[in-house]
Amino acid sequence: MDTPPLPAELTRDVLRHLGVTAAKPDLSLLDALFTAYTRTIPWETAFRIARRSQTTITGDCPRWPDVFWRDALERGGGGTCFESNYAFYSLLLALGYTGYLTINNMEDSIGCHTAIVLTINEERWLADVGIPLYCPLPLNHQAVTRRSSPFQQYTIRPDGENRFQVERSPHPKPNIFTLIDVPVSDAAYRAATTTDYGADGLFLDKIIVSKIIAGKPWYFNNQRLPFHLESFQDGERTDHPLNGDIPGHIAQHFSLAADVLRIAWDAVEVE
């Protein structure tokens, strides 16, 4: 089965939430969607952790696009790469884009990261809100390509058959991931998403939240002690100490549902 597009009514709700008007599925609209997404939908693990902690059967854990987007619309939720890229891809399909899902590597971690590849006016573009990238990136098997966002500059290097190295600067770890430019079936992608909620699933043991707020990237990781928020400006990091009700502060700062944050906080046994 092909990946189903997001239903029309939910698509309208999502676009309204993002503040984007439906238009021709071109690069201009895709840029607008990226800009809106990274300022509205957080990269975060709390909803994922809460879901896992409250769900007995692993196969019932994945937050498929209807659940993902309702969490975003109603409770400020986001997700990690498997769920966020799948939900974003379903939105893109509803808007008329064509492309496919991929499962990729990060250094020695095999199959740990997902991304979307689109074809727009016979050009191929990497669309990845699961890092997130801050803009779509051009793909060319014969040449190095580059593109800049307000926050980072990206370089995409061909690296053999159906492979690209995706890099960013400024950043202490310039290499983001190895794109394996091979379409993944919907069934295989959904199976991998389910597996990522299993015993070896990623990001089930730490609360991380990242989002663009007031023109700056902000970040929280409960394993970076003492507790603090991090903001970034021109490649420089500023730490903002936190005290008192940490889950409450994080929920308020990132506009996340406080009850979900507290369930996740308890699930990872943060003291």
Question: What's the topology here?
Answer:
Elements: H1 8-18, H2 27-40, E1 43-44, H3 46-53, H4 65-75, H5 81-94, E2 98-106, E3 109-120, E4 123-127, E5 137-139, E6 145-148, E7 153-158, E8 163-169, E9 175-180, H6 186-195, E10 208-213, E11 216-221, E12 228-233, E13 236-241, H7 246-254, H8 258-267
Antiparallel strand pairs: 1-10, 2-3, 3-4, 4-5, 6-7, 7-8, 8-9, 10-11, 11-12, 12-13
Helix pairs in contact: 1-4, 3-8, 4-5, 7-8
Description:
The chain is an alpha+beta fold and 271 residues long. It contains 8 helices and 13 strands. A 5-stranded antiparallel beta sheet has the order 1-10-11-12-13. Strands 2-3-4-5 form a 4-stranded antiparallel beta sheet, with helices on one face. Strand 8 (163-169) and strand 9 (175-180) form a beta hairpin. Helix 3 (46-53) packs across helix 8 and helix 4 (65-75) crosses helix 5. It starts with 7 loop residues before the first helix and ends with a helix. The mean pLDDT is 96.
Count of runs of 4 or more consecutive helical residues: 8
Overall geometric form: globular
Topology, number of strands: 13
| CA(first)-CA(last) distance | 45 Å
> What value does the average pLDDT take?
96
- Summarize the main sheet: 5 strands, antiparallel
- Element pattern in H and E: HHEHHHEEEEEEEEHEEEEHH
Beta-strand content estimate: 25-35%
Structural class: alpha+beta
How do the strands line up in the largest sheet?
Answer: 1-10-11-12-13
State the share of residues found in helices, binned by percent: 25-40%
Unreliable spans are none
